Amino acid sequence: MSKQTDMLKTLPLFCDLPEQQVLLLASHSHIRKCERGTFLFLHGDEIRNFKILCRGTVQLFRETPDGHEVTSDILIAGDCINAEEVIALQTTHLTSARIVDDAQVLEVPIRWMREHLADFDRLAPRLLQSLSERLHGARMEAEHRSTMSATQMVACYLQGLCVLYDFDPNGFELPYSKTLIASRLRMELATFSRTLQKLKEVGISVNGNHVAFTNLNQAGHFVCDNCSMAEDCATHRALSQMAQPDNLRITS
To answer: Record's SUPFAM superfamilies (predicted)?
Structure first.
């Protein structure tokens, strides 16, 4: 149980729960090690567990009638994989989940979690906050698809990766394959590849899997000047702080 307890304390959802509550959760959870390519669940499978990603990366996706995969989200360590399913009434998964690289997943029986959620006074608000953040992200994506070009959407996504992983904007390696990123952005791989070549003109250099922001100011204006949510965007604020005080600073 000590392994589960230690793991729970590292996760944002549980990190500051009272010791007694952590022990209770640990006694009703287990840690699952998953290799790359493992399916955690498939669309239509019965919901059995509440899942939190402890290490690794997970792809959430649906398959279209013609066999194409549409990625709805890419999750990293600390993310709840199916927070909405603790609160919702459905009994089967609405998406599929696949391990992108070797991972560890903490699992709590969904029935037990639903029955005892009220016993953990801090969990329900955090789950709702997680759902709110995903809803906000979905609204932002919908706006971007209707107002931005493919180049702007890719530039925005790369800015988000830089901040999410706390990468050095002067140079970092893509954390996922280009195929996965293209799926996440609802693009054909060929379209995504052509778009990457255009980014050099707006202050972003992409060479293979290596990305470098050669001009944060230019890249920021190219994306954020076309987004109504820029002033409320954590990525925009973070990159503004990263920029140097010379002509590279991002301004609104």
So the answer is: cAMP-binding domain-like (SSF51206), Winged helix' DNA-binding domain (SSF46785)
